[in-house]
Predict the structure.
Amino acid sequence: GGGGAKEEKKAADANEIVIGGNFELSGNVATFGTAAANGAQLYFDEVNAAGGVLNKKIKFVNLDNKSDATEAANVATRLITQDKVVAILGATTSGDTLGFIQVATDNKIPVLTSSATNPDVTVDPNTKQVREYVFRACFIDPFQGTVMANFALKDLKAKTAVIYVDNNSPYSKGLAQFFKESFTKQGGKIVGEEAFVPEDQDFKATLTKIKGLNPDVVYCPGYYEQVGKIVKQAREVGITVPFLGGDGWDSPKLAEIAGAQALNNTFFSNHYSSEQDDPNVKAFVEKYKAKYGQVPDSMAALGYDAAVLIVDAIKRSGDGSPEKIKEALKATKDVQAVTGKLSFDENHNPVKGAAILEMKDGKQVYKTYVNP
Amino acid sequence: MLKVEDVHVYYGAIHAIKGISLEVPQGQIVTLIGANGAGKTSTLNTICGLIKPKSGRITFEGKDITGMATPEIVKMGLTQVPEGRRIFANMPVYENLELGAFLNKNKKEVAEAMENVYTRFPRLRERKNQLAGSLSGGEQQMLAMGRALMSKPRLLLLDEPSMGLSPILVKEIFSIIKELNEQGTTILLVEQNAKMALSIAHRGYVVETGRIVLAGDAKELLESPEVKRAYLGG
Amino acid sequence: MMSMFERKIGRQIGILLVLAAVWGVIDFMIKGGILNPYYELNLILIGINIILAVSLNLINGFNGQFSIGHAGFMAVGAYGAAMITIKAHLPFVIALLVGALLAAICGILVGLPTLRLRGDYLAIATLGFGEIIRGLIVNIDYIGGAYGLSGIPKLANWTWIFWLTVLTVLVIWNFVNSTHGRATISIRENEIAAEAMGINTTKYKVMAFTIGSLFAGLAGGLHAHYFYTIQPNTFNFLKSFDILVMVVLGGQGSITGSIIAAIALTIISASLQKFAALRLVIYALLLIIIMLFRPQGLMGTKEFSLKMFRKKSKDKEGKQHGTAIGQ
Amino acid sequence: MEVFLQQLINGISLGSIYALIALGYTMVYGIVQLINFAHGDVYMVGAYLGFFATAILGWPFLPALLLSMVVCAILGMVIEKLAYTPLRNAPRIAALITAIGVSLFLEYGMMLLVTPQVRTFPQVLPEVQYKLLGNLVITNRQIIILVVTIALMLLLQYIVHKTKIGKAMRAVSHDKQAAQLMGINVNKTISATFAIGSALAAAAGVLVGIYYNAINPLMGIMPGLKAFVAAVLGGIGIIPGAMTGGFLLGIVEAMVSGYGKSLYRDPVAFVILIIILIVKPAGLFGKNVREKV
Amino acid sequence: MALLSVNDLSISFGGLKAVSNFNMQLHKNDLAGLIGPNGAGKTTVFNMLTGVYLPTSGDIQLDGKSLVGLKPYQINHRGVARTFQNIRLFNDLTVIDNLKIAYHSHARYGLLGAICRLPGFYAGEKEIHEKSMELLKIFKLDHKYDELAKNLPYGEQRRLEIARAMATKPRILLLDEPAAGMNPQETHELMELIRWIRKEFDLTILLIEHDMSLVMGVCEIIYVLDYGQIIAIGTPDEIRNNRRVIEAYLGEEAS
Ligand SMILES: Nc1ncnc2c1ncn2[C@@H]1O[C@H](COP(=O)(O)OP(=O)(O)OP(=O)(O)O)[C@@H](O)[C@H]1O
Ligand SMILES: Nc1ncnc2c1ncn2[C@@H]1O[C@H](COP(=O)(O)OP(=O)(O)OP(=O)(O)O)[C@@H](O)[C@H]1O
Ligand SMILES: [Mg+2]
Ligand SMILES: [Mg+2]
């Protein structure tokens, strides 16, 4: 890239702390990346307006990884070597995050992902070692999958389930895997496993097949855009049983796409609910709406929380160096964020519970809160 | 009827036509002869607007048509039978003919014209539903001629109409040209077969490397020793 | 007087020395920290893109086929090579070789039945192949499924990539500038005439396709061993389009053109990074504008050479042998 | 049997969408031999225009459809003038690359303009379900799309083969110079081709937007690709071929999902596609004429 | 024994019988002509001889071995080369590359030699280059060796096509309307050339032509085809005066 030298000077500016953003601003999950980055920016602006941290202003350099793992590595290298960031936020998907954490680790720069829920992001599956420099602001797939499996078995009294996953999404497949494990271990039976791809518009063929399998519930951990269409079409082909899902469902768009009627009798686990009766949540929703004119979804909330966590760590690091920030992150305890009071466990995952929400006439209705 | 004055044509940097002037009087056959690459085709293409000249003036029946779009020129009654036939290979013969009368909205006239063409070229009638691309070379040439006749042009430009035709057809084509002319169509004929061309033409021009080097009465040119040596094979 | 052979050898040694110098200087700069890892990464990307573009150019530019599934072969090479190092723990060279050979075998398997298709029909078949490969990878959990394969050791570095890029260009250059290359090109020019002149068109189409896939596989192997992780989505049809764009932009049938385009596009893409959402709009506009001004690509079918600058000596040099087509 | 029939209905209704997009694709290809990769994105723009008209302006269905078709027709002509006309005498591949450029431009330009957020259509065409033979479900929207697809196919076929402009289009597609000598205005004819093709894409966009109820700036990529596949499958440039190809692709996908594994739907669909092409190298309707030498 | 013997060769396209029961015997060093009205099936005969079309029935034998079913390139390797009615050069390549491509089957180095640039490669390339230049000289194209084929004037393109066919070292050369588009002067030169290469290369030549001065001037035996059937075989004089040929092809006042 051109103009490197100039930027390096700027980056070294003593009055700034540079934090990198490695988010999906284009490509197929651009909505998530944009929301998360917006959330983070919102908090950084607040901090700067209040005088910054360690007497320095925060500069948030947010680059586009095109929803592509290779590009994410490219972006991380650039952030670290060109922009001299002290930490990187992002990415929103596990796949893109996995694409660059090695680069960050090699350069000893901490990474805090807002919403990469796959366990492998913080723990290397080959060595079972915790990745020293990687943290996240969200709970992980096994937890979410398990929570939903329990809910299906206990609250909905389901005995059989069909899993319907987004075949291109590690997130979706991860949730499905843990749901399946937990569900079958406790005596449930998976009667079918089907898949779609995010570009799909028409799901009726598979749904017709699922209808023939006659399950008690359908577990469909995907993102709201597809899930909305799936639930809508499922009701059209005559599937009436509950649909269950995860945090990817969380968006006001879900009800718009599926239609309020069709969404009745569906449930999903989430980090938070914008309808939640919690002062922190309410304040966040207000601020976000005021700035971006939209109701924040959980991606935005988690982006905001990632920013909260990193600023907290910088504050406690004393000198704002990557190494100290990493150590401070490790020691994160009871930080008040939108999605709860957060502390990191030994695997660098926040200890927090999940809300289970039910969709009723297009509204998210708070059902239960499950603690880990 | 047609007047070309000092026309220059470039293909990129190549100066292909270096100031050609010629005249086609109403009711005559004028022929343009010359070696390969002399610029005959380029001249015809310039006249009917497929190529824009760099300078010079072309008038048709007194109207300046220099730089005018081809369809406009065709509308005025000037048609070309292009070199290499250029028939619409993936369309059947009859559609090729219909396209010849594209500008004519009168269905009855079109049908009559088509009948005339079929009478003139019975082979085309036999093959009227065959795709033009699978016709033999000669058949394609007939089709190209027939297609041009469909628009009943007042001035017909013919670019090497005898190329690839059997001797009997060459004679036939030439007699058709003559007949057309006698029926009132003015003709500008480009030919490799200089002898036959000059024998039916009123006037002739000899083109060499983008210039007219000789012009005159066709009969005189036929007798001219230079023409004999260069174009009539001794 | 030196024999033709000796003179050519002499020249080749000269070129080799220049290349070695380029490699050495940059290697020194990387090791010495003068070029930071970001620049190194972009150099690596440039190398991989050159391999991809030049190999696709053999198929699309020189042989006149229309393949838009190059990323599929790259995927085969990437996964093949990664499996060798991760699961079989064999050396990097073997991994690269296996990856490339697997891709080449796929090239033959795809090429034999489909190369009799023409133009856009072939395009669809190759695109389909790319999507089939991706679809299979997504569904095989052993190789990571949709989630991708991570934990690949970072074995590729500047040295590997530089010399393998040189090797690729050299092999394809030598191939193209030989009677086999001429046979390949004649198919592009006029298949019917080529066959009438005694050229086994099927053989040369499959050959071009196979060599092209082989090097795409090599690029895949290098990619996998530089970026730690590979994911099926990295090799989707958009990646194939990217490679195609490089080939066309550089000039179909110009190896140096592909090299220049691969370098230029990699740099453009990197420098647009800060424009976030705007970047692809700018990229798209650039693409359109360049094509409008140079529809035949930057180089057409010509090769870039110093001779272009000293035309005078051209007649003596190279002419006698008239090897390089389009020189 | 019942499930099979239901899957057939599913396949046909999915296929009719591919077919609808493929019609414009194949027509433009047939006339200018350009794989207009931007076609899928014009479809996307059409969907957004429909959204704009219905959700923002509150127009009813038909006027919204008309607006979208007209605006996209103009968009198509503008794209043709700016990006393709200058390349008319250039190698075909150059125009293909600009088509990719235009496609990216529309996708990401739109993203800047309307954000990547999904948009949902208001209920302009209330859904009605019909039950056939007991348990087979079919909705009025499916029927509308199917009917519109067939009607447009017939209309296009009529335009291209029976009308004067159609004849001009075909002449232009074979030989532009010779067409001019027939008195055909090549520029106008090609403009008209793009206008019609883009209007068709817009119609597809609005219908699909209403049918699936969710649109986004990248929604054109996959259907565009599938429509291209469908067009090739039927024999590119052949209008009934595009429709058949679309239906076939839809039915194959539905059957693979329904009877095989949905996981392998796309790979299997592509394998079938390649096999069809190997058996019929010029597509289902394409005549495999050997070039006459 | 005949070098090329064609027995009862027929082909139909759909319902159309383009060639039926075509018989021909060509001996070594023959110079034969194939004439007939447009659409008689002459080019189609060439296409069957060179493997472009598969005959519906009948047999083609070269030196007693059948050529039917072979691919065009295999037939070329057996020693049959042709030119095309509508010129098919490698347009965007240079004149000399056009010839070098035709030398391909006689190249003396392999794939490995090319990629590794073994000494054999240089020797082989040198040979190909020299032979191509020689041939260009014969066809008076050597001064244009570096031009793109498409930039040559028509007459030279025709000559180049013949030269290219010669580069495959054929025993039988098939020329499809070699004089089309040439003026009488050029046609005359072409006649000389055809006679000369036949003698020099000990070739058998079969040509299709509508220019009677050429056909009558060089051919020793002429086959006349009409509606896919042979209507006459004979020497130029016999053909010139054959009633049926005059009616179908030459026209009354045959010159
Ligand atoms: N499209 C073109 N681009 C570049 N040069 C061209 C083009 N068309 C013709 N020329 C050149 O212009 C000159 C005149 O060509 P033109 O076709 O007019 O000759 P001609 O007299 O019709 O020859 P022929 O008898 O072979 O048909 C030639 O030198 C030719 O090479
Ligand atoms: N591929 C094909 N499909 C259909 N008909 C064909 C095909 N090839 C040739 N024909 C027909 O076969 C007949 C013979 O054609 P051919 O080209 O052999 O004629 P020819 O004798 O070479 O004529 P010319 O002297 O005009 O070139 C013609 O009527 C032609 O229309
Ligand atoms: Mg000419
Ligand atoms: Mg012929």
Notes: The interface with chain C takes residues 29, 35, 83, 86-87, 90-91, 93-98, 100-105, 107-109, 111-112, 225, 228-229, 232-233, 236, 263-264, 266-267, 270-271, 273-274, 277-278, 281-283, 291, 293 of chain D (CB under 8 Å). The first helix of chain D runs from residue 2 to 32. Residues B 11, 14, 16, 34, 36-42, 83; E 154 surround adenosine-5'-triphosphate (ligand 1) (CB under 6 Å).
